[in-house]
Design a protein that fits this description.
single chain; 188 residues; mainly alpha; Ferritin; 72% helix
Amino acid sequence: MLDTLKALLQDQIKDLYNAENQLVKALPKMAKKASSPGLRSAFEGHLRETKGHVDRLAEAASILEMKPTGKTCKAMQGLIEEGKEVLEESGEDAVIDVALIAAAQRVEHYEIAAYTSARFIAEQLGETSIVKLLQATLDEEYSADEKLGEICTSEILPAAGGADEDEPDAATPRKRSTRTLAGSSRGR
């Protein structure tokens, strides 16, 4: 029952805990599928961070005197299912890598939203130690998203070749958006 903000925060912690544990299982598969050494390294590095996210959530649950288990994050299940579609695809290495990045950034954006909401609730409850735990993870999620975007735009998209060869203006370079989350407010 969600009759108090504390109950809602506990529910959010359980949801995030399950989401991060699902990612601990999915990230090695994504790393294995990546052909770019930089992308593979980014996935492996984020796997190490994700294990730390699980630990932080367990610490937050301990502060709230609760167990972080008992809930399935259906949103993460769906995002991982979409990612599995990419794992089953064949094609040009660089194009598959771009698809992996797209799937991974969907996950990062979901996590950014979920951690931001949980942090706001913890702030309202005056749970400063939980706020710090959630903010540390939120900072890493933003960083992971930015790193994926940088790898994509500087390394993988150029290797993918841009426009399809049969397009009439394939020789005309297209302007790429370089907008990242770096310039956005992170709610600190």
